[in-house]
Amino acid sequence: MKKIAVVTGASGGIGQAFVRELVRESLDEIWVVGRNSQRLLALKSEYGENIIPIPMDLTSNEDLHSFHDLLKKEMPSVLWLVNNAGMARMAPSMDFSFSETEQTIDLNCKVPAVLIHFCIPFMEKGAKILNISSASAFQPVPHLNLYAATKAFLRNYSRALNAELGSCGITVTAVCPGWVDTDLLTREMNGKKIRFPGIVSPEKVARKALKDAKAGRDMSVCSLYVKCQHLNVKLLPQRLTMKLWLYGIRKYLV
């Protein structure tokens, strides 16, 4: 039985960083899932034949079931599942179309839960699931509302699932970074360049997440900046937290 890792959103910055870290693990294959087939093939060219590109759109139910069929055909031992695929946009909630709202909720919430459901039967004691949540999951975030709410779901889902699967020896970790230097960031709003305090590299996020998962932690917080943020939102009322956030982004809203 071959030992594999599955990384979704592998064509993006955080996904690629996880692939770079996982090639150091004792794995037979790394299944890299994403919509950009050229970027997936570039990973194979860079890291070798054990990289298995799986181009698909995970918001498609047909593609999701195709992935399940592939698992049943190959019958691997899934040692790592990294649910990294996601969507984000900084904008007022009413600016989102029905399609964008549906796709964001599907990709950020439904897809990780479904893939976990598909993969757990192929996991053994010691397997790890990493769900890429966000520091925005710690509190309500106006103008990043839809994204933050979906990440709050993923954080809570991950931590509760970790408790459920403890007896099976499977670790589930919610990875909660702050700003990460990737193409997912909205770099400009209303003609003004956005400043990202405490921004970190995808590599730093991936390394810390793997370390925390191996230590059996149900949450991975990458930097001192985000740890302080996590403490602050525990101590401050959420209404005050939202006011402080709105004050900090006020210049981008006009």
Describe the structure.
By secondary structure, this protein is α/β, with parallel strands linked by helices. The chain has one domain: NAD(P)-binding Rossmann-like Domain (Rossmann fold), CATH 3.40.50. Helix content is 44%, strand content 16%. It has a seven-stranded parallel β-sheet, sandwiched between helices. Strand 4 (77-83), helix 4 (98-119) and strand 5 (128-132) form a beta-alpha-beta unit. Helix 4 packs parallel to helix 5. The radius of gyration is 18 Å and the shape is globular. The chain starts with a strand and ends in a 6-residue tail after the last helix.
**What's the architecture, going by CATH?**
3-Layer(aba) Sandwich
User: What top-tier CATH class fits best?
Assistant: Alpha Beta
User: How much helix is in the residues?
Assistant: 40-55%
The strand count comes to: 9
Largest sheet: 7 strands, parallel
| Total of domains | 1
Strand order of the largest sheet: 3-2-1-4-5-6-9
Q: Mind telling me the CATH superfamily name?
A: NAD(P)-binding Rossmann-like Domain
Strand content bin: 15-25%
> Helix count?
8
Q: Average pLDDT, to the nearest integer?
A: 95
N/C terminus separation: 57 Å
Structural class: alpha/beta
What is the CATH topology assignment?
Rossmann fold
User: Compute the gyration radius: what is it?
Assistant: 18 Å
User: What's the shape?
Assistant: globular
- The topology string of helices and strands comes to EHEHEHEHEHEEEHEHH
Q: Are there runs of 5+ residues with pLDDT below 50, and where? A: none
